[in-house]
Amino acid sequence: MVIFQDDNILLANKPFNMLSCKDKKGIDKDLQTILEEKINNKLNIINRLDRGVGGLVLFAKNSKTANTLTSYMKEHSFEKGYLAIACNLSKEEDTLVDYIMKNQRQNISKIVNKNSTGAKEAILSYKRINYIELEGNIYSLLDVSLKTGRHHQIRVQLANANLPLYNDVKYNKNIRRKIGSGNIGLFCYKMAFNHPVTNEYLSFTIYPKDDEMFKNFYR
What we know:
This protein has 219 residues and is mostly beta strands. It is built from three helices and eleven strands, in the order ββαββαβββββαββ. It has helices at 31-39, 63-74, 153-160; strands at residues 2-5, 9-14, 44-45, 54-60, 79-87, 93-103, 108-111, 120-134, 137-146, 186-194, 201-205. Strands 1, 2, 3, 4, 5, 6, 7, 8, 9, 10 and 11 form an eleven-stranded mixed β-sheet that branches. The two termini are 24 Å apart.
C-alpha cells in the first residue's frame, strides 16, 4: 500500500472501493486513517480519489509540507497521469474543453453552458494506448492528463464525449449496475513533483495489473 515515504511525505496506492479519507458518515475505514494508525502520525491528504477509483494518493506529514504541495497543485507544477477504460472506440488522441458545474447536494457534476452560473472550465487530454473487444463491446484504454482539476472531471467529460467509463454507474447511462469487481475503470498511475523540502524531482509509476478489467489490456 505504501509506495514511498520519508520524514515529510507519504505516497500510497489506494485500493479500489476504499475512501481516500473520512466521509461525513465516518463508518467505513478510509486510507488516511489506516495509514495514520500504521505510522502513528497525523497526515494531510493532498489529492483525493473517488471511492471506486484506485491509484496514487499523496499525503504530507506536517502542515508546512502540505501547504507547499497544495501550492504545487494550484500552480499546475504537479503532474498526474490516469489510466481510463472507456466504453467505445476513442480517437487516437484528443483534447476536451468543457464547462462543468458541481451539484454539491447530489455529489455529481454536469457539463453546462460557458455562461452558466458556477460553471468552471475543464480541460483534459488523452491518448489511446490500446483497445479490445470483449463480449461484443469495444473498450479503449486511455492515458489521461488533466489540465484543470474539477469534481469528477474525467468521468463527466469522457461521458460527454461518448466515452463513458467502465462500471461508472453515475455517468455511464448505458449501464444500470456494476459488474465483476465493481471497480470503476479509472486509476491514477503516475505522479511527479519536486520534493517540497529537498526540491529533488520525484516520479512514480504503478499499474493496476491485478484488476480484472485492466489486466485484459496487459496480457
